[in-house]
Design brief:
about 260 residues, mainly beta, 8-stranded mixed sheet, 7-stranded mixed sheet, about 60% strand
Length: about 260
């Protein structure tokens, strides 16, 4: 008489205990954001990992499509009564949903003894991050203190008001805040000399920056109606992207007369 034996084990039972990220604030286009998912096998049988994924949710619903997730490291098996870490690298799309985004996970595995499929659809402890809107500059208006100027005139005050509609601060070089002048035949900016009186080097998110110029008119400046426009560009101090505007919502004009 020949006998055999087997060991009866509790079925594999995977549970995501936590999902954690290494950052609290992200922005459009960010990449290499690391997220860890800790998974424990609360059974005795070994579980073969089939899929481990991250999920992203905003107040409006699931926004997982706005993120690209790459698995950096992940075990193929998880023995009974053991815990392991899954590491992911996340990239953000160019137009993510702003506000608080919750990061969750799900995992699917198979008990290697029975083939039984085990899935955990949510972590016991989830994490979140705030999606900030990048710097977005907008020239609100150009204003001059005179409706008529003369050739050769100096010290004419011009003001350009710029709003940062984003949340990140925009850093601005003085030379990137400019005025432009146009006659009926085209640009005549070379007829004017600009001296920057006030030129903020940065505009925080949600705030305005006021740029003031003292303008001199050349002796040979084009006569008649001149439209005054502006342009500005800066760099988002968080994500390094360029933000700019090249036309004012409200421009101004003056009439150039011979002295």
């Amino acid at each position: 008489l020949t006998t055999d034996q087997w060991t009866v084990q509790r079925r594999a039972a995977l549970s995501i205990t936590s999902v954690q990220t290494d950052t609290d604030v992200i922005w459009a286009g960010a990449s290499q954001i690391y997220v860890t998912m800790i998974v424990s096998n609360q059974g005795e049988a070994t579980a073969g990992i089939i899929a481990a994924v991250l999920k992203f949710g905003a107040s409006s619903g699931d926004v997982s499509s706005e993120y690209t997730v790459q698995t950096v490291s992940a075990p193929a098996w998880l023995a009974g009564d053991e815990t392991s870490m899954f590491l992911f690298s996340v990239a953000v799309s160019d137009m993510p949903t702003n506000g608080t985004v919750t990061i969750d996970g799900s995992i699917t595995s198979a008990d290697i003894n029975s083939g039984y499929i085990i899935t955990d659809y949510s972590s016991d402890s989830r994490d979140s991050w705030a999606v900030r809107q990048g710097a977005a500059l907008s020239i609100l208006y150009i204003a001059c203190d005179s409706g008529a100027v003369s050739t050769g005139q100096n010290g004419i005050l011009l003001t350009m008001v710029v709003l940062n509609k984003g949340e990140n601060t925009a850093g601005i070089y003085a030379s990137d805040a400019m005025l432009h002048f146009y006659s009926s035949t085209g640009e005549v900016t070379e007829d004017y000399n600009l001296n920057r009186i006030i030129s903020p080097s940065s505009i925080p998110g949600g705030e305005t920056g006021i740029y003031k110029f003292s303008v001199s008119v050349s002796e040979s400046a084009s006569l008649g109606m001149i439209t005054i426009e502006g342009s500005i560009s800066g760099t988002d101090t968080i994500n390094g992207k360029t933000a700019g505007d090249y036309s004012a919502d409200i421009n101004d004009n003056w009439v150039v007369q011979r002295r």
